[in-house]
């Protein structure tokens, strides 16, 4: 890890070591904070001259259900933000887990970084994470009548409804999925002399 990142890691440990988990791997630092400290931490990361993270570059939702080979025993949903400090020339991954899987709500970063707007809408649309305080939280990639959140790992592969253009009605219509599920069975072709 380069000296710049070591300096960042030390500053993070000094400021957030008691409330957060700090991981350094592959020349990247991840700061994982509890949901109740999310906004306060983000505000410090932006305003404190030690960190000076002026820009939120990305925010995405993550579904950790059945994560990894051993299975996941922690909280299911997380919001992961990627921050950039142009003045300090460093980056940081800020991760927060949603405390309630059945009603996934965490505070919105929109008041801290305005670029969070569409990213949070996307995480809401695809994962169902609700960002409390977001003033325009609505679907952004799927249709407004869409049922469910397609990036959740328990979302059905074929979906539930499909839309198509009806030439007679001259409009788009919704209907139940007409694709019949099929089981893919590999065909094995062996030569006559196989195994002889």
In short:
With about 200 residues, the protein is of the alpha/beta class. It is about 20% helix and about 30% strand.
Main beta-sheet strand count, sense and barrel state: 5 strands, mixed
Estimate what percentage of residues fall within beta strands. 25-35%
Portion in helices: 10-25%
Q: Trace the largest sheet across and list its strands.
A: 1-2-5-4-3
What oligomeric state do the depicted chains represent? Answer: single chain
Shape: extended
The CATH architecture designation of the domain at 3-138 is: 2-Layer Sandwich
Q: Compute the average pLDDT.
A: 89
Write the layout of secondary structure elements.
Layout: H1 3-16, E1 21-25, E2 28-33, H2 38-47, E3 55-63, E4 77-85, E5 90-97, E6 105-107, H3 116-127, E7 130-132, E8 161-166, E9 171-176
Parallel strand pairs: 2-5, 6-7
Antiparallel strand pairs: 1-2, 3-4, 4-5, 8-9
Would you write up a description of this structure?
With 196 residues, the protein is an alpha/beta fold. It has a domain of 136 residues: 2-Layer Sandwich (Beta Polymerase, domain 2), CATH 3.30.460. The protein contains 3 helices and 9 strands.
